[in-house]
Design goal:
heterodimer; A: 6% strand; B: 4-stranded antiparallel sheet
């Protein structure tokens, strides 16, 4: 059954979109990641214009983050003060990102920047995760107690604030700048940014792992909501019909995935996720390097 | 196909009873007077049919609304391919389709082709800015046509117009799912001995209808409300999902 998407202006198979939503939702349920980094490239592969894919995915992430954050909130695993600090940076970063997005589109380099950002970030994150999970599997027998965080130059920064839930006393500049960077990525790559945010919160800020996911989801809701509204106003590329279809598949997939995820072992799970991230990274790099069938292409935004 | 038969028959009766005895008359009609893009739109096929008294060669040219098309050429930069040179063609037809009874060179002179902009080589593409390199313009022009053909928006079908008897002719017009919206201009020519003996023009609107049109217009006219509504819908859906599965 085909459905015509009013903003993307193409006709797609409704079951393909539901299935993609379900599959990515399943993986995000199993691995506990947002899945934007898989969905946006998939949408582009099936022929959705990249600008529409990025903006629409931001809209879908609002929904999946809301449904995720509620469970964490109930268990008290959201550090709101930290969330607002991250959000402050996130709103600035994502607003800059949307402006940059429109600017790159007019220059004709948007596709390239989206793809290069994917290659760089997926490459780095994938390799780090793979190394970490291999080490974790090896060291499982002789576990060493890790130090929560070390003191370094970051603790000399001004505007120190107390974050009670996270048991931290750090400069507000740290979460604000992390939020800013992730917000920028969210706007350009069509992701929530959890895959950058979570490691940054653990390794850079030294937050306890229990509150990391809930707090990250909390701020992702508002950053992606900001991206959605700004894209809707500036580029008119948010396709609600596409977002709703992805959502319907994603919600069901995520619930099934979450149930299976708890039965699998953490280290192996992370190893698998790392391989998947690297797979997407390699596919995009290959496409950038292989000689195009036609060197000429009709530009975006040529209306 | 049955649905096309009735109007064709009606027209036939109409033509037989009303055609004047002399003169070279041309009458045409379409099986549908608009192309409506609705939620289940996968493209549309229309039949253009007509009667040309005295027969001849029939040529049908369909042009979509003009718009500026920007083309970019990729260049290898160390190891990756990046967009390099770009060229914008002003007011290029967004859709161009041509159907005729015979190959064009058998009845169409270059002079008429150029004057009426019939066939790819005759379409007048205006280049934006001051670019003098004729070879480069030609490369980009060919690339534009090639890319448009790949998208199914440009096409030539010599032989697609067929005659039933000596007066009646028909042809199929195809509009793919990615067809741009706007008013389409359809020119129908009748040629005899290399000259245009008759010409008719009709307008075919291609427009979004129903929910598709409402969503599109809302997104463009009330962008801020649309954006806010989009996040509210998403938030509500997320909340519903968590409630539903908690109880399950």
């Amino acid at each position: 059954m085909q459905i015509y998407l009013p903003i993307a202006e193409i006709s797609v198979n409704i079951f393909l979109i539901l299935g993609m939503g379900g599959a990515v939702g399943f993986l995000s349920g199993v691995f506990g990641v947002g899945g934007g980094f898989l969905m946006t490239p998939l949408l582009i592969f099936i022929g959705i214009p990249p600008a529409v894919a990025v903006a629409t995915e931001a809209n879908q992430i609002v929904a999946s983050s809301v449904s995720g954050v509620l469970a964490h909130w109930k268990r008290g695993n959201v550090d709101f003060k930290m969330g607002f600090a991250l959000l402050f940076g996130g709103v600035i970063g994502s607003s800059l990102g949307v402006v940059l997005f429109a600017f790159l589109r007019d220059l004709g380099h948007l596709d390239l920047v989206i793809k290069l950002s994917y290659v760089v970030f997926l490459g780095i994150i994938g390799i780090l995760m793979l190394i970490e999970s291999i080490n974790a599997i090896r060291q499982k027998k002789n576990k060493v107690a890790l130090k929560l965080h070390t003191h370094n130059w970051m603790h000399g920064l001004p505007f120190k604030m107390r974050f009670r839930r996270s048991r931290l006393y750090i400069s507000a500049l740290l979460p604000i700048s992390i939020g800013l960077l992730v917000g920028l990525l969210a706007a350009i790559m069509g992701v929530g940014g959890g895959f950058v945010m979570v490691p940054a919160m653990i390794y850079l800020l030294g937050m306890p792992t229990a509150v990391v996911v809930g707090t990250s989801l909390f701020q992702i809701i508002f950053v992606t909501a900001n991206v959605t509204v700004l894209q809707a106003v500036n580029t008119q590329t948010v396709d609600v019909v596409l977002a709703l279809l992805l959502l319907a598949g994603g919600v069901i997939g995520a619930q099934i995935g979450a149930r299976i995820g708890v039965r699998l072992q953490g280290e192996q799970l992370r190893g698998l996720l790392a391989l998947m991230v690297l797979g997407v990274c390699l596919k995009i790099s290959y496409d950038l390097m292989v000689t195009p069938v036609d060197l000429y292409s009709i530009g975006l935004g040529g209306h | 196909m049955m649905r096309f038969l009735k109007p064709v028959l009606t027209l036939l009766i109409f033509l037989i009873t009303t055609l004047p005895a002399s003169g070279r008359e041309l009458a045409i009609d379409l099986t549908e007077d608009t192309v409506s893009i609705t939620a289940n739109f996968v493209g549309s096929d229309l039949i253009l049919y007509g009667a040309a008294e005295g027969g001849g060669d029939v040529l049908v040219v369909v042009r979509g609304p003009n718009r500026n098309e920007t083309l970019r050429r990729k260049k290898k930069s160390t190891i990756i391919w990046v967009n390099d040179t770009e060229m914008t063609f002003l007011d290029a037809p967004s859709y161009y389709f041509l159907a005729s009874t015979r190959p064009l060179n058998e009845f169409l002179s270059d002079r008429i082709a150029r004057k009426e902009q019939i066939g790819y080589p005759a379409i007048a593409f205006k280049v934006k800015g001051d670019i003098d390199d004729a070879a480069m313009i030609e490369d980009f022009r060919k690339a534009l046509i090639r890319n448009k053909q790949k998208q199914g928006l440009y096409g030539e079908s010599p032989g697609l117009v067929s005659f039933k008897g000596t007066h009646l002719f028909r042809t199929r017009l195809h509009f793919p799912a990615n067809v741009p919206v706007g008013d389409y201009n359809i020119d129908i020519y009748v040629f005899k001995d290399g000259k245009i003996v008759n010409k008719e023009t009709t307008i075919l609107p291609v427009q979004k209808k129903g929910v598709e049109a409402q969503v599109y217009n809302f997104a463009h006219r009330h962008a801020l409300s649309y954006g806010i509504l989009a996040i509210l819908v998403a938030a509500l859906a997320g909340w519903l999902a968590s409630v539903m599965f908690r109880k399950a």
